[in-house]
Amino acid sequence: MNTHEHEAPANKDDQGDANEAPIRSMFMPQEQKDAGSGAHQHSADDGHDHDHGGHASGAAPSAWKEHWDLLTALAILVVLLVLEYGFKYELPKWPSLAVNTIAYLLAGWKVLRLAFRKAIRGDFFNEFVLMSVATLGAFVIGEYTEGVAVMVFYTIGEWFQDAAVRRAKASIKALLDIRPESVTVLRNGASEEVHPSAVTPGELIQVKPGEKVALDGELASESASFNTAALTGESKPDTKYKGEAVLAGMVNLNTVAEVKVSALFKDSKLSRILEMVQDATARKSQTQLFISRFAKVYTPIVFALAFLLVAVPALFVENYEFYTWFYRALVFLVISCPCALVVSIPLGYFGGIGLASRNGILFKGGNFLDVMTKVDTVVMDKTGTLTKGVFRVQQVVPVGLEANELVLITAALERNSTHPVGRAVVEYAGKSASGPRVEAVEEIAGHGLKGRVDGKDVLAGNLKLMKKFAVPYPEEVAQVTDTIVVTAVNGTYAGYITIADEIKEDAADAVRNMHSLGIKTVMLSGDKQSVVDVVSAKIGIDEAYGDLLPDGKVAKVQALKEQGRHIAFVGDGVNDAPVVALADAGIAMGGLGSDATIETADVVIQNDQPSKIVSAIRIGKITRRIVWQNIILAMAVKVIVLILGAGGVATLWEAVIADVGVALLAILNAVRIQKMNV
């Protein structure tokens, strides 16, 4: 598992607030739903009591009904304003107080309740207390209508903010949660429709053209074409053949296909991916954590400044009027509400996670979006990352035995290896590889395998293996530029088999685009230096190192870190786990094929395209740019209106309009991330 610090919300100190959060993650585990950090986070951890019934949009009919009290208060406010400014009629003092109090309580009773709950726990410095003090203060000095207006517009702003966050999370959920509700399973010679969770591994399911595959499995039909866009972001059809893996979420394109199920519904790759993205929305970025810490300091300072704004002028201002300065302090409190910051920032990161998911890239948290913006060096494994990892035997060069015998002995031993090179030899040997009796197999990391095949001591691996066991070999073998598997039998060199891999189509473009972003590229491989040099020359890698054992890769990455480099390591996330842990960001290629990859990496690229590395970096930069745009916008507007309010220029009306307005502008800026192209 990666050693990067994964920030997550801390538990609330009062479970009584567990049902007060309006912006609950609609798919977050319950223990995370009840979590919180900071005095007034608007993400999945605050204490608002605006339950929108789970709707992604505040425009849903039930949401309107749920806000009948707020809408009634708004209607009363509009009537009072029309009477005052349209007909120049003001209600007498006591009837006005009664009507405005009713409207105020309808709009703000939830805010007042939360302010009271937090206050009795000693938490006075939060936005609920802030808004309660400001609006009740307006009533104290007789500004009833303005007090109602502040609470009404503040609560409407909260409603819109909650709806925007819900919509952002719903779009991520809709993007990924594409699991069918039913599946056709073949049982006892007949087909029946059942929920996917009722199907067990080993059963056959039938997928008609246009249907989504409901469960992971292997194709039982001869062939079928699938659209994998929902999983990989690629719309290009992918033809599968009998025995090849088919994953939940793929769409059958052309013919009825039968799939032999290999995993339970809850254990499918798609379910794992969905779970990972759900968890990602709860893992905070450093910017979010900073704003949370900032809010804890900011709000007490605001209260102190508001108090000083009332008290200090009494010492220096002639004809001091308490009403005037108290009103200015109320304006100060209203505009200081940090809603725009604490809503738009997590919303921006939700948008970045959603944009990445739409492009087949899974970030394990907003913190890794930040990490990707700092990357200046991308270190890549060769096999499976820059090359396809689909090896084919090219040449068999035996010494002292027949070619078939060399292949048979080597393949028998390599059956115990998961390395692509070993699998290529086994595939070349065919069924005959399972004939010999193999025992005492031992894998030597970075070298190869040793064991006994039909009673003979056999070594199969690279030249480092031969050197380790002092097996002499012809000098010309070291000059072979292709990948080779060298075999020794009973301590005697027996020949070699050449293996060829193929560079991925977009590898060169990916490296070129990284260079355009000012990113240094490095390739690390356990393969021969001659092979590594050929591949690096073809795709333009800056530095390439071969003949590396796992600890050699760690040493290279450590050396880069000591130079002050910010490193993303791209590999399979399993064999290179130590390097992944050492890098600032671990990126797994082809994560759909490996549960271990999903567990290990910080970022998972769902297909095998190196070009997605560049997309991940760009998405990180886009997200960070928009988040900082919102921070600057919110702070600039607040500072200006705070100054105007302190100087008596801005009124409560202008304060609440500026507060809600800047929050909505920041939200609109944040949600546009998901519609961008990378």
UniProtKB/TrEMBL annotation:
Q: Where is the composition biased (Basic and acidic residues)?
A: 1-15, 42-54
What the entry lists under InterPro entries is as follows:
ATPase_P-typ_cyto_dom_N, ATPase_P-typ_P_site, ATPase_P-typ_TM_dom_sf, ATPase_P-typ_transduc_dom_A_sf, ATPase_P-type_domA, Cation_Transport_ATPase_IB, HAD-like_sf, HAD_sf
Q: Where is this region: Disordered?
A: 1-58
- Residues passing through the membrane, by range: 70-87, 93-112, 124-142, 297-317, 329-350, 626-646, 652-671
Q: Does the keyword Chloroplast apply?
A: no
Q: Which reaction does it catalyse?
A: Zn(2+)(in) + ATP + H2O = Zn(2+)(out) + ADP + phosphate + H(+)
Domain of life, source organism: Bacteria
Localization in the cell: Cell membrane; Membrane
Q: Where is the P-type ATPase A domain?
A: 179-278
Ordered alphabetically, the record's keywords are:
ATP-binding, Cell membrane, Membrane, Metal-binding, Nucleotide-binding, Translocase, Transmembrane, Transmembrane helix
Instruction: Return the EC number.
Output: 7.2.2.12
- Report the sequence similarity comment from the record: Belongs to the cation transport ATPase (P-type) (TC 3.A.3) family. Type IB subfamily.
Q: What is this protein called?
A: P-type Zn(2+) transporter
Give the organism the record lists.
Flaviaesturariibacter amylovorans
